[in-house]
Amino acid sequence: MERKVDVLEEKIEASLSSSSTAAIDSISLGLARKVHEAGMEWSYRDKLIMAPMVRISSLPMRMLAYSYGADICYSEEMIDRKIIKTIRKIDPITGRIEYHLPAGGITFATYPNEPVVMQLGTADAVLALKAAQTVCNDVRAIDINMGCPKHFSLQGGMGAALLSKPELVHDILSTLTRNLTIPVTCKIRLLEKHDDTMRLVKAAESAGIAAIAIHARHIADRPRNPARISDVPAVISQLTVPSIYNGDVFYYDDIARVKKQTGCSSVMIARGAQWNPSVFRSAGMLPVYDVCNDYIAMSTRVGNVYANSKYAILEMLKGHVGPVPQYQSCTGARDFGQLRAAVKGVADVAAVLTRGYVAPLAASLIAEMERKRLRTSSSGDRSSITSDSNDMNGASGTATTSSIVTSTRGEKRKRRRQKKKDKRTQRTHTKFLRIESKTETKSASNTADKRSPASPTVNGVDTLSSSSSASAMTTAATTTATPATTLPTTLLASIDS
Ligand SMILES: Cc1cc2nc3c(=O)[nH]c(=O)nc-3n(C[C@H](O)[C@H](O)[C@H](O)COP(=O)(O)O)c2cc1C
Fold first, then answer.
1. The predicted structure's pLDDT at residue 371
2. Could you tell me how far CA 76 lies from the centroid of its own chain?
3. Under CATH, which architecture does the 42-280 domain have?
4. Residue 98 — φ and ψ, nearest 5°?
């Protein structure tokens, strides 16, 4: 392992001498350090993790996240059937490992020893294993998505559909842990009843997983609903595997607080990283404008597909400046050069991008969530809340941006559309649960037969037996939680100071 790491570092050092900007140099050095550390040991304790995010967690974003301080990054969710069909190639010049789709296009790319976890979307143990075996020599761990509430996932029995099927969860995970030599994890959402959540996590734990990520929301919760952080300690305190807390972590300072509040072993960040991946920087977040430039530099360096990079940049800007006219020139940019110039155009009118990190849209969103939470919750802690503010860091620049963030008709239309979409998802989920419960009632009587000793084997793989050879990989969690009742104080303070 050490030799592999040395070779990679030599490669990176060699490419450094030919790189043009200081930003890229520091990015590469950051990656080299992370790769080196990851090569020495792999654990889920005290780690800063970038969450799986569709269209966001591609190679340049992951590289940037490592350079800023992330220890582990998840890939976006990859559907098992899609991964199985891919063809692995290595770029002879860069050493990049690429998984090509038969119809063209790269679905996943990585560098040797990148501390990346491949997240799979699956509803079937055999397909999950085949997909995992396709990539297992190029990723450090496999994660199973059990939280996606989207129509596509639920319809296919994947994502959040797995939350109500602890037996299937156990089968998928134990099939993976028995047949793979790399760690296996899963990412869940909380269920409405604590007992149901416990049934699920215990089924996962007994399958020999190395860690469990908990997104502290219910299936029906939308991202704008506050994470249910106070429900997490009761789950984590009963786990024996390391836990990864996920939900509403937007600032570096909140990481320690969330850990203390929940007793989790590691922390996973999604939207905070999507809006500004330098959230992982212990020295403080960088201005979004600098991060955009770093991201564009990284994208060109790793040869990322332009459309994907543009999407990530637009998401970063959207999270901060609102509908300024200059934003439109970013959407029209046709190449990295035009995109860089367009981002500068936005930064010229939205000083918030260059002045130090402030996230006005994110802040007002969180403030609104918190107000709603207090309105509906009689047990909310109001003591620290006095008035509203958009200034997340107590930094200057809010006045400039609040004038930019206006409630336009376009925004109202968008909100209406989002509401409709939420209702649709909710309907799909309710329908899904209804069908599920009917099916479960029907099949309850013969469940025992299905799991008879004559477990089916496919391609020599035992898909139902419960013993786990990978349990050795599972380390006992030592952290226990003091039950938490409020949101992180810094978050509250920054929302309503
Ligand atoms: C753009 C985007 C894409 C996402 N894609 C995935 C995904 O592929 N797999 C997954 O398990 N969760 C996905 N999520 C959910 C996040 O991983 C995370 O659980 C959720 O956003 C809560 O974390 P946060 O409060 O830090 O944003 C996605 C979230 C966002 C914002």
1. 64
2. 7
3. Alpha-Beta Barrel (3.20)
4. -125, 140
489 φ/ψ angles, rounded to the nearest 5 degrees:
-60, -40
Separation of alpha carbons 181 and 111, rounded Å? 20
Q: What percent of the chain has pLDDT over 90?
A: 53
Distant-in-sequence, close-in-space partners of 138: CB < 8 Å, separation ≥ 6: 88, 97, 110, 112
440 alpha carbon, distance to own chain's centre: 31
Tokens of residue 313, six digits: 């940049």
- Confidence grade of residue 189 (pLDDT, cut at 50, 70, 90): very high
Once rounded to an integer, what is the mean pLDDT over residues 72-76?
A: 97
Taking residues 61-74, report their average pLDDT. 94
Q: What is the mean pLDDT of the chain?
A: 75
What does the pLDDT read at residue 372? 64
Lowest mean pLDDT among 96-100, 109-113, 203-207, 337-341: 109-113
324 vs 233, residue with greater confidence: 233
Q: Contact 109/308 with Cβ under 8 angstroms?
A: no
For the CA of 269, the nearest atom of ligand 1: 26
The one catalytic residue among 73, 136, 148, 186: 148
Q: Which of 54, 143, 280, 418 to mutate to test the pocket of ligand 1 (most atoms within 8 A of CB)?
A: 54
Instruction: Tell me if 77 CB under 6 Å of ligand 1.
Output: yes
Q: What is the dihedral of CA 76, 77, 79, 82, to 10 degrees?
A: 10
Which atom of ligand 1 approaches the CA of 248 most closely?
25
Whole-angstrom Cα distance, residue 426 to residue 429? 5
**Terminal-to-terminal C-alpha distance of the chain:** 49
Is the sign of the CA dihedral 320, 321, 323, 326 positive or negative?
negative
Domain ranges of the chain: 42-280, 287-406
Determine the average pLDDT of the residues in 125-130.
98
Q: Is residue 49's pLDDT more than 90?
A: yes
* CA-closest candidate to residue 486, choices 232, 264, 243: 232
- Looking at the DSSP assignment, which residues form a beta bridge with residue 187? 145, 213
Number of other residues whose CB lies within 10 A of the CB of residue 429: 18
Cα–ligand 1 centroid distance for 396 (angstroms):
30
Do 54 and 125 touch, CB atoms closer than 8 A? Answer: no
Query: What's the confidence (pLDDT) of residue 36?
Result: 52
What was the pLDDT predicted at 394?
25
| Residues facing 108 on adjacent strands | 99
Nearest CA, atom 1, ligand 1:
53
Whether residue 78 is predicted with pLDDT greater than 70 in this model: the reply is yes
Is 148 an active-site residue?
yes
